[in-house]
Amino acid sequence: MIKTFGILAAILLCAALALPATAADYVGSEKCFTCHAEQFNDWQASGHPWKLRKVEKARYAKLPLPPGYSWDDISYVIGGATKKARFIDKKGYIITTAKDGSEAKTQYNLANGSWSFYHKGEKKPYKCGPCHMTNYSADGHQDGMVGMIGTWSEDGIGCEECHGPGGEHIKKPSKKTIAIDRGAEACGKCHQRGGMGPEPPAKGGFIRHHEQINELKAGVHKSLACIDCHNPHQRAILAKDNCAECHAAAAKSYAASIHGKAGLGCKECHMPKATKSAIAVASYTGDVRTHLFKINVDPKAAMFKTVTEKEKTSTFAQGYLTLEYACLACHGSRDKAWAAKSAKGFHKM
Question: How far, in Å, CA of 321 to CA of 297, rounded?
Fold first, then answer.
């Protein structure tokens, strides 16, 4: 009898360990602060918790609202950290018109204070899971609002979206009770468009936004992990200035060039803003840096290609940068022929 009970207990234990984490296992990012204050503060200052915020927090960000709306009409704000903000009404739908239903630009662009259309006039449910929240489930409606597709444990990208549920970790703090994934795909599950395939989608003369894993896999640094250059808890713009660790000769000769002496870093040419999230600053300048790195100095090279499959036409970046994005974004009065001539032996100039 005792032996049978022991076997049954072992079976039940194995079954319990095999069960997926439940919402109850997720404790919230605030619980992490006690032991991980530095990482928590870095995360708090990053864009991740801003991906989705309840109005109780978001209303203090001093954002303007779409025409006719007051904060009493808003339930959530999408974004609002550095690029753009969109607004969700009390039924869970993304606002796409003025409050009276008339045509209006409802996406606010932080860089220049402009407004853009976002799915103009459509009835647009909020279905941005799983990349704007923590522990997303496609079932149900968050807060009981019909426009909210799915449910989640925490608004925005919290600690547990990357590290897994923290309930067990709080009980038994160790690396064995929390997930630590340093691979590029851990970031790529959200920093992608259309999957983690090797071709970055493009539109309107720019690479589309949140496609960093697509760019990385399509480019010359496909073997790198994101953490080789980024601290995952910090803002992306605080990336390490460590190109010289692998490209010592190029860095040395570049430092002696006119651009190097002017203090321009590698990223200005090899990671230009060839991607657009909210606004385009100029013809060849968007508002997000690319992760393609390699520059094709052939003046005839095209940045994008068009593919037609099953009567659907799509545009993709080629996997390299062309001269108009790498050079003419700054040297706007020049042309590609000039850029091609100047780019030869550039690091030795």
Answer: 9
